[in-house]
């Protein structure tokens, strides 16, 4: 789609039309990332919002319109998936032609990949009690992850892939703010994942963050519940040529 053919404003964010997955979703041109947002109208739904990311042609797409369609796809795929391999599921989601190269949909991928693998693994023992991960657990994990916005890595120092692992442990431990050990272990799972992601350096790469978070989650599941999930070692990353910020190349273990 050329940048002159601006999409018609509509309140239906799921309105089907061709969208770019790298750079600007509307015209494919370079995106500007601001540390202080400007007020702009979303080109799809017309809502005025604080816009920290928009393109050189002034196209701003709000987080809801950016992610709604792919989020629904990830949810449906997660509910139907038969795999016990979280990285296989994650790679399949990230390779979907409508998956934006960067953005909040990746947060859902982490949580759903681990919960899908756990559901298909079968019953596990959590604090002496048998627990079977269910479809409702997957839906709950996805519901929580939809609340974490894109760019939370830079905005809060908390890439959503990290809390994506924390949400899995929260669901397994049935953590609440009022509980002791369950809340602590949930935060430790998020912390361990965020540390691993931060240690990969920048600029941010959602593919690398998803893989790093899931590998951390797999390690923690083994330590805490003696669950051995398969690990698909990702090498020769398929995405390196497409990265809008520039791939880190040899600095990335998946390159
Ligand atoms: Zn544009
Ligand atoms: Zn919108």
Structure description:
The structure is a single chain. With 255 residues, the protein is mainly α. The chain has two domains: 10-61, no CATH class; 67-251, no CATH class. Helix content is 44%, strand content 10%. The chain has eight helices and four strands, in the order ββαααββααααα. The chain has helices at residues 63-80, 86-94, 105-121, 135-145, 152-156, 161-173, 181-199, 206-225; strands at 31-41, 48-55, 124-126, 129-131. The strands form two sheets. The protein has a two-stranded antiparallel ribbon with strand order 1-2. Strands 3-4 form a two-stranded antiparallel sheet. β3 and β4 (129-131) form a beta hairpin. The chain is globular and about 55 Å long. The two termini are 31 Å apart. Residues 1-16 have low confidence and may be disordered. The structure holds zinc ion (2 copies). One zinc ion binds at residues 3, 24, 26-27, 29, 55, 57, 59. The site of one zinc ion has 8 residues, from α1. It comes from Halanaerobacter jeridensis. This is DUF5714 domain-containing protein. It holds the Pfam family DUF5714.
